[in-house]
Design goal:
Elements lengths: L1 H8 L9 H37 L16 H7 L2 H32 L6 H13 L2 H12 L5 H7 L16 H26 L3 H9 L4 H9 L4 H16 L3 H6 L11 H9 L5 H35 L1
Helix pairs in contact: 2-14, 3-14, 4-8, 4-11, 5-8, 6-8, 8-11, 9-10, 11-14, 13-14
């Protein structure tokens, strides 16, 4: 009887094929199918990153070479006012855009969580800016901030002739104009991620909070929000990686100006590799930009490992 049961578990009725062999053959086909993607990822990302790091220690000009000069490129990089201003602009843009995206993204997610009518339509509207090209987004906001075409002109035509709102024309406020464009572009995808986290909260939590007489806003802020660590971390990491490589929207809105008021590290890298024919300096800047990305990824793994360790202890 046991032999019959064992044979019935290891055979597929009707064809006599072993299921383990079928699974093995299916896994092999899956691996073969992913080989082109693996080769592309290794070739484009891993190998290019390694060579970029190597060339950052050379005096490469128009074309890469292997004339090593040690840390000279990094010394020149951090002694450059243009680079230091770019890093400062990146921190300003990153802090305000990430905070804005997370706060407004969560508020929109709470709004969508009310089971409103035409939810699909509103979701599409909020996600539409993220689907647009960053160049198009930048041009739209450039027109909106243009004192002769945009918001300032429209309000003045309504009778408020003293109204002034043209942040991109001033070095002191240009970076904040770029921040507004970045928030408009990224808030929709943040909303979608956080809405998925809200919909994943157990319904019993809401019932218990309602029975205890806790207001809805306190439930969203102090009970539900801490339970959405996974969704919040995902949205935060997505925003951080987008901030580090910000380029298109700045070029479209300000070209890095006025002056270098909105210069970003990615613009610095591209300009030195192309316009200034200084590959070594550009690669040093690019390698430095990689550090915060590695730090964010390491933070993600550390938090996941800590959560897994706590679950295992429980």
């Amino acid at each position: 009887m046991s032999q019959f049961a064992q044979s019935s578990e290891t055979a597929v009725p009707g064809n006599g094929h072993h299921p383990r062999k079928a699974r093995r053959r299916f896994n092999l086909m899956s691996i073969v199918g992913t080989i082109p993607m693996i080769l592309t990822a290794v070739g484009v990302f891993v190998i290019c990153i390694i060579f970029s790091f190597i060339w950052s220690f050379t005096n490469s000009k128009l074309f890469p070479n292997f004339n090593f000069v040690g840390f000279d490129q990094y010394t020149r990089l951090w002694s450059s006012d243009r680079w230091n201003i770019s890093v400062g602009n990146l921190f300003t843009f990153g802090i305000f855009s990430i905070i804005g995206n997370m706060v407004f993204g969560y508020l929109l997610a709470v709004f969508m969580d009310q089971r409103i009518k035409q939810e699909d339509m509103f979701r599409s509207i909020f996600l539409y800016p993220f689907a647009m090209s960053l160049v198009v987004t930048g041009l739209v906001w450039q027109w909106m901030f243009d004192p002769n075409l945009g918001i300032q002109s429209a309000v003045q035509k309504l009778g408020w002739t003293d109204f002034q709102f043209a942040p991109l024309t001033s070095q002191a406020t240009a970076i904040y104009g770029v921040v507004l464009g970045g928030i408009w572009n990224g808030v929709g995808v943040t909303m979608a991620i956080l809405l998925a986290g809200l919909r994943g909260v157990d319904a019993e939590i809401w019932k218990a909070a309602k029975i205890d007489g806790i207001p809805a806003w306190r439930t969203y802020l102090f009970i539900v929000l801490p339970m959405m660590r996974g969704a919040i971390l995902t949205a935060f990491i997505l925003q951080c990686t987008g901030v580090v490589r910000v380029y298109d929207i700045v070029i479209a809105m300000t070209q890095g100006g006025p002056g270098i008021a909105t210069q970003m590290p990615a613009i610095y890298v591209i300009q030195h590799i192309t316009d200034r024919a200084n590959v070594g300096q550009g690669m040093a800047a690019a390698s430095t930009m990689l550090l915060p990305v590695i730090a964010v990824i390491a933070l993600q793994f550390a938090l996941q490992w800590n959560a897994k360790r706590k679950r295992n202890k429980a």
